[in-house]
Automatic annotation (TrEMBL):
Entries under PANTHER family matching the protein: PTHR47478, PYRIMIDINE 5'-NUCLEOTIDASE YJJG
Protein name: YjjG family noncanonical pyrimidine nucleotidase
Record Gene3D superfamilies: HAD superfamily/HAD-like (3.40.50.1000), Putative phosphatase, domain 2 (1.10.150.240)
One Pfam entry name: HAD_2
Entry-linked CDD domains: HAD_Neu5Ac-Pase_like (cd04305)
Organism whose genome encodes this protein: Flavobacterium hankyongi
Alphabetized InterPro entries for the sequence: HAD-like_sf (IPR036412), HAD-SF_hydro_IA (IPR006439), HAD-SF_hydro_IA_YjjG/PynA (IPR011951), HAD_2 (IPR041492), HAD_sf (IPR023214), PGP-like_dom2 (IPR023198), Pyrimidine_5'-ntase_YjjG (IPR052550)
Lineage, broadest ranks: Bacteria, Pseudomonadati, Bacteroidota, Flavobacteriia, Flavobacteriales
Family annotation (SUPFAM superfamilies): HAD-like (SSF56784)
């Protein structure tokens, strides 16, 4: 199936870089200084789905960057019946972004799989994440050197699943559609976005959710060593 592939494009958050674990660590640091009474596990359990919902609105241009950073915190505090001023929300948001790249848990098998693939293929990143933070994540986690190119939505001017970001990434990588594959955790942004653009895709299904049999999927990154 992948015999013609020479370029592999990865999403970053929730695919290589374990966003949930690293996010929890960042909140631990931030809340220890400004809201020590907050139970981190309880907060994160509320924040995670709200953050995902906000990102979906953001990637479909229904929410701005600034609105995303504010609403995901404001809505989480409201859900927990915790009163927090807008000024403190802004501070927490800034401190969270500052601390987020400092914890760098990667998904199981990430480094070993990238080492294997890097010897045979040209690897790339396509991310909707904010450029400055994403580059810090790649550098701090020690995986930046595996990737020939990094394309983010700010650079491309559009976000996944828009075809423009895939077009920008392939142009930057000097890659053709038929020799490229996209791997990511989001069925809409990564899988459907890639397919609609005309390249193959693999769904990183770490949560092992039920999906159509037509969707090519893996549940562990190490499985890629047996596909390529």
């Amino acid at each position: 199936m992948y015999s013609k592939i020479s370029h592999i494009f990865f999403d970053l958050d929730h695919t290589l870089w374990d966003f949930d674990k690293n996010s929890e660590k960042a909140f631990e640091v931030v809340f220890s200084e400004v809201l020590p009474e907050i139970n981190i596990e309880k907060f994160v359990s509320v924040y995670a789905p709200i953050n995902q919902a906000c990102w979906k609105l953001y990637q479909n241009n229904l929410m701005t960057h600034d609105e995303l950073r504010y609403r995901r915190l404001k809505d989480s505090f409201d859900a927990l019946n915790v009163s927090v001023s807008d000024a403190l929300i802004d501070k927490i948001s800034d401190d969270y972004i500052l601390n987020l790249p400092n914890s760098n848990h990667l998904f199981e098998g990430c480094v070993e799989t990238l080492e294997y693939l890097h010897k045979k293929y040209k690897l790339h990143i396509i991310t909707n994440g904010f450029a400055e933070v994403q580059f810090k994540k790649l550098n701090n986690s020690g995986i930046h050197h595996f990737f020939e190119t990094v394309t983010n939505s700010e650079m491309a001017g559009v976000k996944k699943p828009h075809s423009g970001i895939f077009e920008h990434a392939l142009s930057k990588a000097s890659a053709e559609k038929e020799e490229s594959v996209m791997i990511g955790d989001c069925l809409d942004a990564d899988v459907a976005g890639a397919i609609n653009f005309g390249i193959q895709s693999i769904f990183f299904n770490s949560e092992k959710i039920d999906v159509s049999k037509d969707v090519n999927q893996i549940t562990n990154l190490a499985e890629l060593k047996y596909l390529f």
